[in-house]
Amino acid sequence: MNPTRLLILIVFLSLAAAAVWKFSSQPAPPVEEVPPVQVSEDPLLDGNPDDIQRITIHHTNVERMVRLVRGEFGEWKMTEPLVDFAEPSVVRSALSLLYGKQWKPAPEGWQQRPAADLGLDPPSLTVELDLKNGGPTRVLEIGVATLNRNFYAARLDGRLIRLGAALGGLLARKPDQWRDRRMIRTPMAVHRLEFKPQQGTGMVLVRKGDLWYMERPLKAPLSPLARSAVARLLGARTEILAEEVIRPEMVKAAQSSDKLWVYARGEKRVISFLSGAVYVSDRPYVLPLPMEIFDLFRQDPEKLRSPFLVDFEPRHIASLMLGQGEREMVFRRRAAGWSGPGGVFLPEDHPQQPGDPLEPIFGQLVEGAATLKFENPQAVPDRPADGFLRLSKSANPIERGSVQLQWWLDAEGRPWVAELGGEVMVASDMPLDAWLQRCLLRFPQQP
Fold it and tell me: How many domains does the chain have?
């Protein structure tokens, strides 16, 4: 390259680099700050959200109406444009915002502006709120959004206001966005699942406290992986909701399909399996769902069971009952330690007083029961048990919700433990009979 041209090129690149450096070193122009949303000191509606009996939303631009009605037991249903269950969380959010403070009085200048400029002639949405006590219907009309999109121009019972964007956007939802997308509407209330296939072996799962157990074809606590599968099933939601009710031919097909019976709070629902969807007996719509969530019921039951004989959290145990035949002894976990008929058992390493040799037994009983491995099970013998143990979360070891175990001694004096009513037992390294006899000698009479 010509030296003169090379020099010119170098000078040009140097000037360009200097210009870039100068530009990049300048402070960025200030960004216009959007003031934070100011809210009213008073709620939009006075009273209690429970006072609302019916919500009717008119979409003026598309000539559409959504109507939600509160049921006898507080549940919400959609009655227009179709009949279906409403999504509880969405309705709760709407009621919370209606009785919240996300609104402001209208600026003075709005009073002189035509209603059409505010999007209120006609309004985009007209919301009618009917009260339980038969009071006057509250009417909320919603127009256009303000420039900062934080509010909507609105009228509440004819009074101009600025309505919070969260409520305005929520009320503008399409009809299908108000519908309940859950397959099971009360998952936390479900306590029993019965899978009844057209062919093959079924399965029964029951909830005991916070944990799920298999009741048939075998009795066993579920493994953590299986419990997660149950949780996914109970929480299943559909992404697509049909607007047309299920056709008669599909109802007929559902009658001859595999079924899952769901028991909750004295109610029973039947879920029928269709191709890539389900039909729930209390809802006349097909719910498309990934059918893999039901694979749990088609697995080998042995692969679903927990590796332990029983499944519970030792730290949740508040009391236990230890006994033999008609003899029962109750022990409770206190803040100071385990206690029995004679008071609190002092630990053997107590710094001031002699410890009680019985004190370690109770913690070892609880921990040992929680870690009983389900290995090499044997059939329960046809004779009375040599001892029993009941573990409870309650201060009194009541039967309901407790872990109930019993054991038999073999020829070598080793205990074999089974759940009460169980058909198989497993070997334990705990000296259960020795602990039992020590307690019986200490407390010959039940307090």
Answer: 3
pTM as predicted: 0.75
Largest CA distance in the chain: 115
Q: Outline where DSSP puts E strands in 83-230.
A: 84-85, 103-105, 125-131, 138-145, 151-156, 159-164, 190-196, 203-208, 211-216, 220-221
pLDDT, tens digit (0-9, with 9 covering 90-100), for 323-336 = 999 999 999 998 88
The rounded distance, in Å, linking the Cα atoms of 363 and 317 is 10
User: Residue 84 gets which letter from DSSP?
Assistant: E
Residues 171 and 223 occupy one common structural domain = no
Q: Same domain, yes or no, for 324 and 431?
A: yes
User: What are the pLDDT digits (tens) for 119-158?
Assistant: 999 999 999 999 988 889 999 999 999 988 899 999 999 9
Q: Are residues 276 and 393 in the same domain?
A: no
For residues 12, 13, 18, 21, the Cα torsion angle rounded to the nearest 10 degrees is: 150
**By residue range, what is the domain housing residue 319?**
314-442
CB 351 within 8 A of CB 343: no
- Residues 169 and 60 reside in one and the same domain: yes
Number of H helices, E strands in the chain: 8, 26
